[in-house]
Amino acid sequence: MPPSQEPRPSLGDQPAPAQQPRSPIQAIDRTVSLLTEIAAAGPAGVPLKILADRVGLHASTGRTLLSALAIHGLVGQIDETRRYVLGPRFFELNRTYELQYDLGIVAAPVLRDLWERTDETVHLSTLREGRRVDLSVLVSRQLLNVNPSNMRSPSDPTGALRRTAAGKALLSGATTGELQALLNLPAGEMQRLAAELDGVRRSGYATNFEEEAAGVCGVAAPVRDGAGRVVAAICVGYPAVRRTPAHETLLVDAATAAASKLSTVLGHSATPVRGDSW
């Protein structure tokens, strides 16, 4: 048959990609290689024999690893052909991964609603490499306002996290070991911080009353993803001169409701502590 008339191989019969880098753990390397081959095969899937041959495994070893991956939803099989394809867990993980980088876009409608409701400065913050980063900032339209972009740079010491409402909300998702590794505090200070963060977890929000800067107050609530992890904080910052019990209650309810709304978008289903009527 002339070359131009030769049948094209299916996706499952494509040549193997370049060799993957190797780690000290062989089982991990084999698993990654299997997943890479399955991903390359696309929706048509790939049979066990071809998959095992490409990765250099006995069929029985490949079947054992694939069965374990299937338990966790990382791979599946097409019923009619028994070819392997990526499982639904990958799509969930990919969605979480994308949200880490597009969270500001996803949160935009929620932040806008909060900004209009409170008429104060609203910002969305996250932790990156142990430091707080503001992903989005909507500065209050009022003449006297708080602008976090003018108050700090991303290179501020990690210790400043415990003096801001957003920082406390972000830290509320950390374990004691993670807090100690991040902040490296003396035992007494760590105990006081742990007690304060326990309060944040119980109430669903954190506050800052001129702890970081004179004349600046804030209320923040943690944002959680589908696994319940704190991935961000929604904060409302306002001048101390506008602090009254009524205004503070309004901001707490609005911030916690906004955080709950964004958490729901990210797949979290827990009932909010405050502000659930919004």
Q: What's the domain count?
A: 2
What amount of the residues lies in strands?
Answer: 15-25%
- Count of helices? 8
Relative helix content: 40-55%
| CATH top level assignment of the largest domain | Alpha Beta
CATH H-tier superfamily of the largest domain = GAF domain
Biggest β-sheet description: 5 strands, antiparallel
Helix and strand succession?
A: HHHEEHEEHHHEEEH
Straight-line N-to-C gap: 70 Å
Radius of gyration: 25 Å
- What are the low-pLDDT stretches, counting only 5+ consecutive residues below 50? 1-17, 272-278
Q: Please state the second-level CATH architecture of the largest domain.
A: 2-Layer Sandwich
Q: Order of strands side by side in the largest beta sheet? A: 4-3-7-6-5
Mean pLDDT over the residues? 85
Shape: elongated
Question: Which topology of the largest domain does CATH recognise?
Answer: Beta-Lactamase
Structural class: alpha+beta
Number of strands: 7
Descriptive notes:
Keywords: DNA-binding, Transcription, Transcription regulation. Residues 89-268 form the IclR-ED domain. One of its GO terms (biological process) is negative regulation of DNA-templated transcription. Residues 1-23 are annotated as: Disordered. The longest helix has 31 residues, at 88-118. Helices cover 44% and strands 16% of the residues. Mean pLDDT is 85; it is low at 1-17 and 272-278. The chain has a 5-stranded antiparallel β-sheet with strand order 4-3-7-6-5, sandwiched between helices. A two-stranded antiparallel sheet has the order 1-2. 34% of the residues are buried. With 278 residues, the chain is an alpha+beta fold. The protein contains 8 helices and 7 strands; from the N terminus they run H-H-H-E-E-H-E-E-H-H-H-E-E-E-H.
